[in-house]
Write a structure and sequence with these properties.
The complex is a heterodimer of chains A (205) and B (70).
Chain A (H helix, E strand, L loop, with lengths): L2 E9 L5 E8 L3 H24 L15 H8 L5 E8 L2 E9 L16 E8 L13 E2 L1 H15 L6 E5 L4 H7 L3 E6 L5 E6 L1 H8 L1
Parallel strand pairs in A: 5-7
Antiparallel strand pairs in A: 1-2, 1-6, 2-3, 3-4, 4-5, 7-9, 8-9
Chain B lengths: L12 H14 L3 H20 L5 E3 L6 E3 L4
Helix pairs in contact in B: 1-2
Classes of the chains: A alpha+beta (205), B mainly alpha (70).
Chain lengths: 205, 70
């Protein structure tokens, strides 16, 4: 059973904040339930993009992620935590992080432990790149805040790190204020971003 | 926050010294160091049980050395 706390998402239609639930420690039923809603919706939207001749480069880069497989690969391992955000009875986003074995690369924080965000995705109906009227905003921000809070709880002072898909580079850099440490040849040349304790405190303001 | 339980840990001087050094270097409490170690050990044990091997690689030379885990 996951731990639950209240968070807020922004309804893009009304512009109002709406109450949602942050789930820490998703169980199998929650992940399977989310995938059962996400995959059919995503497939339908991708078919529409295809029919409109939108090139695959513009499709969401994480549309192939298999959250059930990620759950099964990490089930029962203390080093991994899976988060979800539930709102209006639907999973609006999911995130997988690890709290062990990853350390900082930024010189001022070098070798100090951090929370590493392996995967973070919003539900397909929240993605402006595939739907004309996306449902909720702030899913990514709430997840990054959850990773920072976890880092604080683990005594990591808010330090987090992640490899970004190219479509999200700008958001992690400008939207979150993380430090861009450049392409990482060890991880498909994805850009690696880190957040220092000071940047984390600024993000949470 | 998950419920926590307390236990007494008996360590030799050498073990305690290492724990204190890691705690200082990583700027986390000794409890957090032990928690990290447990997570890592469980993860390694699970991977090794699946028939995988653990290697360290030198960044510059890409030279690999297998780490034996009991």
């Amino acid at each position: 059973m996951s731990e639950r706390s209240v968070v807020y998402l922004k309804d893009r239609q009304s512009g109002q904040l709406v109450e949602a639930t942050l789930l820490d420690g998703l169980d199998r039923a929650e992940v399977e339930g989310a995938e059962g809603q996400w995959i059919p919706f995503l497939q339908e939207q991708l078919q529409k993009l295809k029919a409109r001749g939108i090139s695959k480069e513009k499709w969401p880069e994480h549309s192939h992620w298999d959250w059930r497989q990620k759950y099964e690969a990490t089930e029962g391992l203390l080093a991994y935590r899976m988060f979800g955000i539930e709102c209006q009875s639907r999973m609006q986003g999911m995130m997988l992080v690890t709290t062990a074995g990853k350390t900082c690369r930024i010189v001022s924080q070098r070798n100090k432990p951090l929370v590493y965000v392996h995967f973070l995705a919003a539900a397909p109906w929240n993605l402006p790149s595939i739907v004309s009227e996306p449902r909720f905003a702030l899913v990514g921000s709430v997840m990054i805040a959850a990773a920072i809070h976890l880092s604080l709880a683990e005594e990591f002072s808010g330090r987090i790190g992640l490899h970004s898909l190219p479509q999200a580079d700008d958001w992690y850099s400008r939207g979150c204020g993380m430090t861009d440490l450049g392409p990482d040849p060890a991880v498909q040349n994805l850009r690696y971003f880190e957040m220092t304790p000071e940047q984390a405190a600024e993000f949470l303001k | 926050m998950a419920d926590k339980r307390t236990m007494t840990l008996n360590l030799t001087d050498a073990e305690m010294n290492v724990l204190e050094q890691l705690s200082e270097r990583k700027e986390i409490s000794k409890t957090a160091v032990v928690r990290q170690a447990l997570r890592m050990y469980q993860m390694l044990d699970a991977r090794l049980a699946q028939g995988e091997k653990l290697f360290f690689e030198r960044d510059l030379t890409k030279e690999k050395a297998e780490l034996m885990v009991i």
